[in-house]
């Protein structure tokens, strides 16, 4: 059995910190967290302080490393995107295809089947569209949006069986309660997003098995005192998970702090980046469905906008969202780490990721005290 021992850093196991302990990894999986005076003979990795944590998990990544999934929905694109985010601590992600043609969706599904087997950080697939509401289109193309049909339900279920983890973002207006129930019972992770629905319509779909809400506050009906909208329903429903983009542009920190305090259900908000191709790239623009998206520098991080000023995804990486959470959202470091590890793993039902319990994948990240990434590991190997 090939063992490796990590010492010299505080260990965060997904729930709590361990001081003056060692992490023992065997054959790419966590064996134990042990006292330093009770260690087997093995290769030793000595870390210079900081924190050793499970690697970050990102459920919504449109691009990275200079590549957008929509431009080329292939295995190569998915691997480039995963590699582009790895220096920022992300060891598992869902490449995300935004609203596109049926042919693009089919190609993304076929690519995801192979990319997941490759075991290099692609943990599944996120299809964000085309079943969204034109009234809340954001940067998506409204002309490609349409309701869910029975053939789509069957295709999603087949894709989930082949890929393992499939997340679909659907507007409540574009899917029936019965369709949500069928998808959920077949293991498809349904998230409501890009929707102008009422709180009642959202709650019906949550009760039918819709598991989450895509980028809370963005591209959805807002919370009013008599019409709570999708935002109100998401915050109030105890079993509903909510992804949030913490980049200083998508949502005011006051709104995020309010949601963090108000959300029913413990640990139900988690970080997503909604990142585009410029993360891990020095370019300042790219094209999205034939439209130019440009990087505007300034603020906590750069923002990405279309020519009319519409936000088009983010330019943030996962370690930056953790720093943002600690600095602007009043989060403890432990909770900020959970929102990038344990909580997204639970949302996506990735049982062996997001924590450092015995048997978990040894996907790891080492952070300095200033919350910068020094090294990431996939299955115990430096990546």
From TrEMBL:
Hydrolase as UniProt keyword: yes
Signal peptide: none
Domain of life the protein comes from: Bacteria
Matching Gene3D superfamilies: Metal-dependent hydrolases (3.20.20.140), Urease, subunit C, domain 1 (2.30.40.10)
InterPro entries assigned: Amidohydro-rel, GlcNAc_6-P_deAcase, Metal-dep_hydrolase_composite, Metal_Hydrolase
Keyword Hydrolase applies: yes
Cofactor, how bound (note): Binds 1 divalent metal cation per subunit.
Single annotated GO MF: N-acetylglucosamine-6-phosphate deacetylase activity
Catalytic residues as annotated in Swiss-Prot or TrEMBL: 274 (proton donor/acceptor)
Amidohydrolase-related domain sequence ranges: 52-381
SUPFAM superfamilies from the UniProt entry: Composite domain of metallo-dependent hydrolases, Metallo-dependent hydrolases
Pfam families: Amidohydro_1
CDD domains: NagA
Cofactor: a divalent metal cation
Binding site residues for Zn(2+): 128, 194, 215
GO biological process terms on file: N-acetylglucosamine catabolic process
UniProt entry keywords in alphabetical sequence: Carbohydrate metabolism, Hydrolase, Metal-binding
Family: Belongs to the metallo-dependent hydrolases superfamily. NagA family.
NCBIfam families from the UniProt entry: nagA
Protein known as: N-acetylglucosamine-6-phosphate deacetylase
Organism: Rhizobium sophoriradicis
